[in-house]
Amino acid sequence: MLRLITKFLHAGVMIQDKRYATTEGVAQGSVLSPLLANVYLHYVLDEWFEQQVKPRLKGEASIIRFADDFICTFERESDALRFREVLTKRLGRYSLELAEEKTKLLRFGRFASRDCQRSGEGAPGTFDFLGFMHYCGTSRAGKFKLKRRTSAKKFRSKIRELKDWFRSKLTTPHREVWPTLVRKLQGHFQYYNVNDNWEMLMKFREAARKLGLRWMRRRSQKGRNLSWEAYGLYLERHPLPNPGQITDLIAMGSAK
C-alpha cells in the first residue's frame, strides 16, 4: 500500500494532454485524495480536537468529518470563536489551508431561532454538507427538528450530469438506455431519500421524465412528433421508479 501511495504522489498530473510533475499535495479529484485525507486529518484534526481542544472548552462540543469536509458543533459561542481562531494556525502548521469560501460560523439548533431574534440576526442560517442543505425546522408537534433537503448546488449538478448522459445516448437503443435511467433514479433516491426531502426527490424525478421525452424526440425525425400522450403510454409500460420503491424492494429481500 505504501509503495502504491508513493507512486501516486510522484505520478504527476495531466493538463491538456501534457504531464506536469507534482512536488507536494495530492492531485485534485485523485482516487488517493480521500484515503490520504482520512489518514492525515485523523492526526491533524480528529485527535487534536478530542485530546487538546475539548478539554479546554467550557461547553459541549463535537466534530463530524467526512474526508476533508467537517463540521464542528459548540454549545457556547465563545468556544466556537476561540476554535475558529486556532483552527487556521493548526492547519497551517501541517501545510493545510482552510477553504474560506466554504467556511462559516452560524447559530444552529434548538435555541437558534431565539438567539437570532435576540441578536437581531433574522432567521437561523443553513449549511450544506455531503450534498444536503441542513436547516432548522419544527416537527408536527412543534418541537425543534433538524431538516435536510438536496442542496441547490448538488441538484443542479445532478441535472446537468443527467442531461449530458442523455446527450451521449442519442444512438443507443431504448432497451439499453431506459433500464440504466431507472437505476440512476434508484441510486439517487437511495442516497437522498431522507425525511423532509420528498419535494426535491419528486422534482428530480420530474426532471428525468421531461429529459426522457426530450431524448426520444431528438433521436430521429420521426421521434420529434412524439406527443406527451404517446410518451405517457410508454411510461405506463416502462415506469420510472418513485422514491421509496427501492427501499421496499430491499426490505422484501431482507425478509426472505
UniProtKB/TrEMBL annotation:
InterPro entries: DNA/RNA_pol_sf (IPR043502), GrpII_Intron_Splice-Mob/Def (IPR051083), RT_dom (IPR000477). PROSITE patterns: RT_POL. It holds the Pfam family RVT_1. Residues 1-134 form the Reverse transcriptase domain. It comes from the Bacteria. Belongs to the bacterial reverse transcriptase family. This is Reverse transcriptase domain-containing protein. It comes from Novipirellula rosea. The lineage of its organism: Bacteria, Pseudomonadati, Planctomycetota, Planctomycetia, Pirellulales.
